[in-house]
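A quick aside before the break. I want you to see a complete sequence-to-structure record at least once, exactly as it would be stored in a machine-readable document. Don't worry about memorizing anything.
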Amino acid sequence: MTQGRHYILNPLIPKLDNLRDLSTATHLSPGLLFSLAKHNSWYYRVFTIPKSAGGAREIAEPARPMKAVQYWILKNILQYLPLHPAATGFRKDQNVLKNAQVHKNNKYFLCFDLNDFFPSIKYPFVYTIFNSLGYNMHVSHILASLCTFNGYLPQGGVTSPTLSNLCCVRLDRRISGYCGLRNIAYTRYADDMTFSSMNSKRLVGLYQRAKTIVEDEHFILNEAKTRYMGPARRRKITGLIVGDGQAGIGRKLERKLRASIYNLSQAKQLAGISWTDEQLKGWISYIHSVDPNRHQRMIKYIRDLSSRLNLPMLKSRLGIN
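That is the input. The structure line, written in tokens, reads:
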């Protein structure tokens, strides 16, 4: 594509022909934008957090000016681009509950995990997204550089979640096409891929076909996390228990939370208390979004316990009115 005036394929996104156009649109100086794009690794704070399954996850948090320009790109460009319906993560209208509900009426499940998901999405993937919209090579390079860190999508970047879904559109389309012909339900929540069916035979051969597509799209399956679940096993998808037409946190977690709340209510902390006040408040908030029925039961339990033990402060400690 030649430099200069060009044809933007989506009328909702702004026309940008050069760095100065981006400067005018973002109200950031051309010099700062040039530095952010050319030396993007300077504008991140890198740290690690432990993974639940062991090991560490690298987080690259953008500095304020990088965060500002990424937010502008997200709100003015990326939010207008269509995503595949199978992608259920990082979307305002989706969450882990809606992801699990797609599979709630099925009996047999196969779950895959994409290895090093964000680092697997390299600069060329991101460049192609912007260039395919009609931006010229120069502008596409600047926008891609502003959204990447050391040549890949940073986990912690403002634009990274949406860009990851956009870069997976073809992956989701190919796998959905394969599954649709076989009456297999498919969703992808970030790096978690879930397949389900009422007939176990329909899942036979799925792994190898999905693996071929995944590798063809330049991702790698984490084979150690591949799971098959049938009716005899507890079926857990993106943290929720699925089965019998329902999806939620499950009885086991509910009992553990109740036990922790009871321990918290005692004058002396009992051995084995699972969570602090803040952690329990976080769990209660999470349950409200993914399992409304159990959330109501949890609130009732806290209120009844507070009344029975004459501990009005228990409710306030857990953020309950």
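Two observations worth writing down. Residues 48 and 58 are 4 Å apart (CA to CA). The longest helix spans residues 292-308. We'll return to this after the break.
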